[in-house]
Design a protein that fits this description.
The protein is an all-alpha fold. The chain has seven helices and two strands; from the N terminus they run αααββαααα. It has one domain. A two-stranded antiparallel ribbon has the order 1-2.
Length: 174
């Protein structure tokens, strides 16, 4: 698919999923503590700009998976910028024990989580994609299964394994 075709497809799909992306963006912005420093519209716009240049998606399922990744990158870049502005940052505190959720309470924690997901992707790319969908896009198990074209049972198994792996990894580095 040529670059103009990608732009056209992104331009076509954005209005269809805009409200969903804003809802997801609001929830994820609050969850990672972006608060007033990053508005939902800015998050969705950054994700959209990234989607316009991404290759490898051709339908709504792939668009939504790409949106999850784009939101992850936007939130992590925002957190890195916030961390860079701070001096003498303390230890990273990441809690992975919340019911079915990865809780990050600092910008440093979000950056550490992102780096750990990159490491996880080396061992298990599918598990890393499940984390991106479940955590960064806030998709449910059925939504994640649909977006990644895998069964809900596989989503549950990968999510459980990924959370345990990330907990171990972040406990060692934190």
């Amino acid at each position: 698919m040529s670059e103009p075709d990608l732009h056209a497809l992104a331009d076509e799909l954005l209005p269809v999923f805009y409200e969903d992306l804003k809802r997801i963006g609001r929830r994820e912005r609050r969850r990672v503590g972006a608060g007033e420093t990053m508005q939902t519209t800015a998050l969705v716009n950054e994700a959209y700009l990234k989607l316009r240049t991404m290759k490898g998606w051709a339908d709504d399922r792939h668009f939504l998976a790409a949106a999850a990744l784009a939101m992850r990158h936007a939130l992590v870049n925002h957190a890195k910028a916030e961390v860079a502005q701070k001096r003498g940052a303390g230890a990273v505190h990441v809690s992975l024990t919340q019911a079915g959720d990865l809780g990050v309470d600092t910008d440093e924690g979000l950056v550490a989580l992102s780096e750990a997901i990159d490491e996880l992707a080396q061992e298990s790319p599918r598990a890393a994609r499940v984390v991106e969908c479940r955590y960064f896009a806030g998709y449910s198990e059925p939504e994640t299964a649909r977006v990644l074209d895998i069964s809900e049972r596989t989503v549950r198994r990968e999510w459980t394994m990924a959370r345990a792996w990330l907990y171990r990894r972040l406990s060692v580095s934190g």
